[in-house]
Amino acid sequence: MPHSFGYRARTRHMHARPNRKHGLQTPSKALTIFKMGDLVDIVTDGAVHKGMPYKCYHGKTGKVFSVCPRGIGVAVSKRVRTRILTKKLYVRHEHLRKSKCRDAFLRRIKRDLKKKQEAKKEGKIISTKRVPPQPRRAHVVKEENIEYLAPLRFRDIF
């Protein structure tokens, strides 16, 4: 048989539905609201053939630039040889999910804001900048009860 180069070639596992999750998606997935500027993950759903993006965009994160009645415009970065291009695609909502890539950043911002407010009440100024792990401070190890270990002498087991 000749080699296949079709539009969905080599997507056997990529477009497959997870175990015990076959069929259409839940209504809550369809009721997700996407707004312009949202960060979304493109994860193709094999149960919905319409509006499916090309396989190279599966797993990519992009920014919503347009919301239409049946499709959502997503701007994605794609590496083409030595350049990184911005590609604009229209994808149906079944193949998108809201990205959690900024959640940790937003949690850190809120946590730092609370720290600053508490420090301001105490009359202190603190830095909330992230600092990489520094080298450990120098110290001297005192020799107390040093136990020297030596291997046991070989004995016949038999």
Structure report:
By secondary structure, this protein is of the alpha+beta class. The protein has a domain at 27-98: SH3 type barrels (Roll), CATH 2.30.30.70. It is 15% helix and 20% strand. The protein has two helices and five strands, in the order αβββββα. The chain has a five-stranded antiparallel sheet with strand order 4-3-2-1-5, with no helix packed on it. The relative contact order is 0.13. This is 60S ribosomal protein L21. Residues 9-23 have a biased composition (Basic residues).
In terms of per-residue confidence, which ranges show pLDDT below 50 for 5 or more consecutive residues? none
Determine Rg (CA atoms, Å). 28 Å
Mean pLDDT over the residues:
93
> Into which percentage range does the β-strand content fall?
15-25%
Gap between N and C termini:
64 Å
